[in-house]
């Protein structure tokens, strides 16, 4: 699977002074791009600068993060609520930058949770998770989250089909009882708030990846499928039998119209919608139904395009005319034509149907095939100059080819086993170009060994010339499954520096140190605490009793950039709090024995940081 271990240092330009100067960002100066890389099974998002590859931030999304109390503080726990209860981990795959007119706009980043189907929205003004919505009737939320060109919708296709509604049935009744769904999450254009608008019920295949149309194909979305064999066991064999699976072409504008006309059925469901409210406290609501469209009752809404073989990527070029299927077991890269698809639909050039969904003839839709591209084509991005770049997992390389002539013009090895690749804006209407990044699954000999588990990596190539030039490889956190990048100027000037204390509407905030106090209500004790360089108020707390439930509501009174304070209590069965300037965060604590318990600030905040401490007296 890995291509030629040990040959890693002989690659082209990397290691020469030329490459080093192209990625060198002098101390104190800024990178040109932000890159947002999924942490994969770490459940997080890594924020890197390009071209330097410097890690700037680690934003927790689907995993609790003890470092800052995310998922531990009372204000953030609700973000992890699901119909299964509190789920503190997920597998995050595909970051998607919000778009306006088909181009990243720097407002929000969406990312999927695969395992317990969810979609999160990060606010790029604060670099924090602002919202998480659960998806009912889904299993393995992989074809997600993919945006329409004005962020009208976030699309999400189920990887695993499941009984809908869930029921206790034999697994070998898969073909009769298992279905898939394609979910359409509506995005509020001002706030970014998510709501599940409708789902489309589809045959029980595996839906793998997606992209929306743009330009002439705006209003359509494309989802790759595999396991059209509908196997439920030994998929490596049983889901690899068909020569072609399908690309689903969905007319989402028409679907929208069908919903408006009342064609959708309200189906009972139970899923969570979690969001930070105006006081920056996570709320969790249960939603009890979802609108579902059945293709049998919605003619013209969805078609299947045959696509060889177990396609993975479903990528639309900047013009919106070409839809590229990365058939991971295919010997060619098939490119479908949107305009030919419309003609084929008009002329009813069908090859049967599945559950009311017409299957278009492959040749009628085909624009062309890239011949001998390499082995294991997965994903394609575009440079906006007429070229496409496809990752080849098995032959471990990036292949550059020309749209329209389908000829391969360059190839560059990746070290090793490249999954996704990414060009800044490379899935948009107007790519920013300049670099392609390989997101590699295996690194083997590329770094100093660190025991059995080695870092994953990203590799940066210059694509400004005819030939790709490897400039840099850098380690990443978790699995850098997919990434997106955009010019830093679209984000950096909107970055929040602190939260104005006057606008803090947290019900247990204090606005000044003289409001600091301890209040008892039966066995519940609330400590209204302030922090400012370099002390807590109050810092000597007495009157706490074993068996009390204590809530420390810590407000950071600082009104300056980059001055968080931490709050840690000895023996707390919890994480620390890291409180941003102007913010209030709450730590729940149950004292277990009589004595005196110290607490302190964990974030080095000033010359007298070591003096920033206090005591809690616990009595019987
Ligand atoms: Cu401090």
Structure notes:
The protein has 6 helices and 45 strands. Strand 6 (96-100) and strand 7 form a beta hairpin. It is globular, with a radius of gyration of 26 Å.
In terms of structural class, how would the helical and strand content be classed?
mainly beta
What kind of sheet is the major sheet?
Answer: 11 strands, mixed
- End-to-end separation in angstroms reads 63 Å
Q: Percent of residues in beta strands? A: over 45%
Any idea what the shape is? Answer: globular
Low-confidence segments, given as residue ranges, are 1-12
Secondary structure tally, helices = 6
For the CA atoms, what is the radius of gyration?
26 Å
What ligands can be seen in this structure?
copper (II) ion
Report the mean per-residue pLDDT as an integer.
95
Number of E strands: 45
Question: Considering DSSP H and I runs of 4 or more, what fraction of the residues is helical?
Answer: under 10%
What is the topological layout?
Layout: H1 17-23, E1 33-38, E2 44-50, E3 54-60, E4 81-82, E5 85-86, E6 96-100, E7 103-113, E8 118-123, E9 128-134, E10 143-147, E11 153-157, E12 162-163, H2 174-177, E13 178-187, E14 194-203, E15 206-212, E16 220-226, H3 235-238, E17 244-251, H4 252-260, E18 265-276, E19 282-293, E20 302-308, E21 311-316, E22 322-327, E23 333-337, H5 338-346, E24 350-354, E25 357-360, H6 362-365, E26 366-370, E27 377-382, E28 387-392, E29 397-402, E30 408-413, E31 418-422, E32 435-440, E33 456-462, E34 469-476, E35 483-487, E36 517-521, E37 524-532, E38 535-537, E39 540-545, E40 549-556, E41 565-569, E42 577-579, E43 584-589, E44 595-600, E45 613-619
Parallel strand pairs: 14-19, 37-40, 39-45
Antiparallel strand pairs: 1-2, 1-35, 2-3, 4-5, 6-7, 7-8, 8-9, 9-18, 10-11, 11-13, 12-13, 13-14, 15-16, 16-17, 17-20, 18-19, 21-22, 22-23, 23-26, 24-25, 27-28, 28-29, 29-30, 31-32, 32-33, 33-34, 36-37, 37-38, 40-43, 41-42, 41-44, 44-45
The protein binds copper (II) ion (CU).
Residues 565, 601, 603, 605, 609, 612 line the site of copper (II) ion (CU).
């Amino acid at each position: 699977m890995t291509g030629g271990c040990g040959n890693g240092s002989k690659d082209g330009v990397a290691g020469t002074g030329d490459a080093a100067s192209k990625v060198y960002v002098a101390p104190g100066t800024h990178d040109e791009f932000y890159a947002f890389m999924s942490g994969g099974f770490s459940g997080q998002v890594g924020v890197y600068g390009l071209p330097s590859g410097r890690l700037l931030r680690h934003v927790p999304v689907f995993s609790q993060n003890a470092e800052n109390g995310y998922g531990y503080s009372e204000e953030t726990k609700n973000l992890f609520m699901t119909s299964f209860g509190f789920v503190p981990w997920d597998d995050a795959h595909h970051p998607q930058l919000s778009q306006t007119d088909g181009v990243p706009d720097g407002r929000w980043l969406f990312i999927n949770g695969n395992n317990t189907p969810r979609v999160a929205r990060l606010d790029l003004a604060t670099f924090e998770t602002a919202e998480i919505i659960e998806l009912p009737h889904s299993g393995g939320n992989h074809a997600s989250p993919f945006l329409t060109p004005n962020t009208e919708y976030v699309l999400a296709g189920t990887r695993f089909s499941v009984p809908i509604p869930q029921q206790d049935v034999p697994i070998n009744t898969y073909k009769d009882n298992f279905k898939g769904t394609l979910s359409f999450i509506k995005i509020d254009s001002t706030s970014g708030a998510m709501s599940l608008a409708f789902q489309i019920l589809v045959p029980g295949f595996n839906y793998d990846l997606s992209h929306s149309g743009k330009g002439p194909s705006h209003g359509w979305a494309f989802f790759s499928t595999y396991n059209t064999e509908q196997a439920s066991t030994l998929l490596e064999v049983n889901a690899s039998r068909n020569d072609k699976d399908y690309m689903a072409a969905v007319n989402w504008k028409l679907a929208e119209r069908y919903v408006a006309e009342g064609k959708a059925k309200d189906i009972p469901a139970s899923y969570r919608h979690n969001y930070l409210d105006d006081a920056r406290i996570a709320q969790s609501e249960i939603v009890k139904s979802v609108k579902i469209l059945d293709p049998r009752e919605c003619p013209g809404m969805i078609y299947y395009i045959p696509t060889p073989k177990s396609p993975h990527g479903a990528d639309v070029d900047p013009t919106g005319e070409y839809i590229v299927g990365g058939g991971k077991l295919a010997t060619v890269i098939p490119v479908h034509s949107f305009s030919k698809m419309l003609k084929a639909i008009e002329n009813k050039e069908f090859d049967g149907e599945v559950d009311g969904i017409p299957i278009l003839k492959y040749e009628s839709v085909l624009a062309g095939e890239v011949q001998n591209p390499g082995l294991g084509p997965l994903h394609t991005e575009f440079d906006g100059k007429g070229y496409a770049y496809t990752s080849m997992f098995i032959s471990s390389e990036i292949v550059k080819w020309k749209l329209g002539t389908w000829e391969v013009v360059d190839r560059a090895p990746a070290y090793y086993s490249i999954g996704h690749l990414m060009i800044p804006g490379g899935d948009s209407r107007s790519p920013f170009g300049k670099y392609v990044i390989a997101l590699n699954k295996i690194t083997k000999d590329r770094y100093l060994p660190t025991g059995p588990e080695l870092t994953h990596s990203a590799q940066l190539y210059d694509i400004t010339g005819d030939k790709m030039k490897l400039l840099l490889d850098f380690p990443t956190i978790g699995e850098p499954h997919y990434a997106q990048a955009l010019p830093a100027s679209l984000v950096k000037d909107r970055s929040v520096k602190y939260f104005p204390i006057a606008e803090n509407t947290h019900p247990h905030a204090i606005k000044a140190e003289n409001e600091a106090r301890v209040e008892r209500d039966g066995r519940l004790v609330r400590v209204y605490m302030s922090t400012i360089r370099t002390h807590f108020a109050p810092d000597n707390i007495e009157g706490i009793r074993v068996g009390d439930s204590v809530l420390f509501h810590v407000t950071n009174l600082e009104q300056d950039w980059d001055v968080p304070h931490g709050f840690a209590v000895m023996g707390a069965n919890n994480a620390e709090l890291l409180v941003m300037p102007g913010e209030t965060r709450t730590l729940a604590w149950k004292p277990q024995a009589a004595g005196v318990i110290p607490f302190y600030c964990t974030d080095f905040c000033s010359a007298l940081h070591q003096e920033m401490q206090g005591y809690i007296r616990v009595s019987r």
